[in-house]
Every structure is written in structure tokens, then in C-alpha cells.
Amino acid sequence: MTVINSQECTFYGGRIEAKATVEQKVNLSELSPDMIKQKEFAGEKITELLSKAPGNDANIGGLKVVIENGWFAARPSGTEDIYKIYAESFLSKDHLKQIIEEAQTIVNAALQTNQKNV
Length: 118
What we know:
7 strands
């Protein structure tokens, strides 16, 4: 976990990796915002679901879920049989842990064969 402090804000960041088959990596890379049925995440309303970069509309090869006080992004590795979840909380270490745990639930559901509506 990384803790960044500045005069303007403090945030907590983390990253996890998990094994994934080629099929699972394809499922994750093809996730789209309309496949996510959850309305809340880590105790907060989801404010954005992104599969494309806001600046240039480029495909991010995964999914980013944003809430008021944090976010996570999940994408498959291009070089290893793993996927990665990156997360930040603007509240606390405990909130970051909750974000990561719930992100894993969303990603694991998406990686199930023939189950893309999570």
C-alpha cells in the first residue's frame, strides 16, 4: 500500500495481482460499463464506469469504477497470465481494503465463463 500526503490531500493506493487464464483475460478486457449491474460499491454510489480513457476515448483494456471517495481499475496483463487491480481511497487504509475486496468480487464474477453481467 502507498500513502501519499500533500498539503491538499491524502490518498491511499494499492495494487493486487491474481492468476488468470487466457479466456479470463479476454473476458476482462471485453468488459463494458453496461455489463456492471451494481449501483453501489464500497458503501458509496458508483459515479462512473469507464472502459475508455476520458481524454482520448482510447480503450483501456479493462474497466475503471469510480466512487466519490475512491476508484479501482482492473485489466489483464499483456505479458503474464494474471490480471491486476489498481485502487485508490481518499478516506483511509480500511476504505482502500474494502475497495480492493469488492473489486475482486466484481472481477471474479466477470471472469466466470459465460457470466459477464455482474
